[in-house]
Amino acid sequence: VGACGGGGGGGVGGDASHVFEVRGERDTYALCCATRTERAAWLDAMRALIDDTHTERVFGVPLAVLLERDAPRTVPRIVDVLCAHLSRHAAVDGLFRESGSKAEVLQLAKQCDAGALAHIDLERHSPHVASGLLKLWIRRLPEPLFPFDTYKKFVFLQSYVVRKNKCGAPEHVLALRELLRDFPTHHLRVLKRVFMLLTDVVAQAEKNRMNAMNVAIVFGPILLYPEQQTFQTTLDIPGVNATVRFVLENHDQLLPALPGDDGGDGDGGGGIGDFGASAVGSPRTPRVVVGGSGGDDG
Q1: Which of 280, 248, 281 has the alpha carbon at shortest distance from 169?
Q2: Chain segment 140-162, per-residue pLDDT in tens
Q3: Phi-psi region of 65 (alpha: psi -120 to 50; beta: other; left: phi over 0)
């Protein structure tokens, strides 16, 4: 389909305002609808079909599809480009907290979806526009980077460690590792790339005023959220932010090593860091059972 637009009513019959043309490479078809509402519905459906078959789209596209298209890359090109650019501007005051021009962000997203990513000069735009573009890409993923089916498990775990005063304890670390180890590989690779960027941002907190908590407040609700929002999930947000902050601050130890990672052994077992190798490795270490019936042990 070449284009959709208003057309004349000559020879078709009916009210001309209910007629539209579909122009292909060789033929043009005039379609007549009974009402303006029906005409609008047809146009919306056809535009959606065109959008869904656009092979250049990068927003709202499943990670697996993007990575198949961007092969042999292990992270979508748009993520690499935006993270590299924003790392160079990590000291900008309020990065990620302050909003850039919404119109510019949406226009750049439209250009990216039209296959123009390679031709966009991000230096011509405020870093806040680039940060807004990255947040928009993350928000529009069909499945969040922390998959839907892990939401309740992370919320339960955070509630448990707070109630038992065990945040950062060996069993907390082990439970997080188990949850993260089950993530799809493409989710883990993107999380690693994003957390590398956010670590750069937090390292400049004296200049940009974006410490780990401030970053987590911005990213928690777009990285870890449920399939259905409820009043209860709104109450979960502080715990969500705390979870994302902890994973961000310790991602080198928590996210499993993957094939191709520098220095990775592939099993996610190395590099305990400050958690205490002997404690975490001990067979006597208590274990938090995440999920299940959600029963409270009091």
Answers
A1: 280
A2: 999 999 999 999 999 999 999 99
A3: alpha
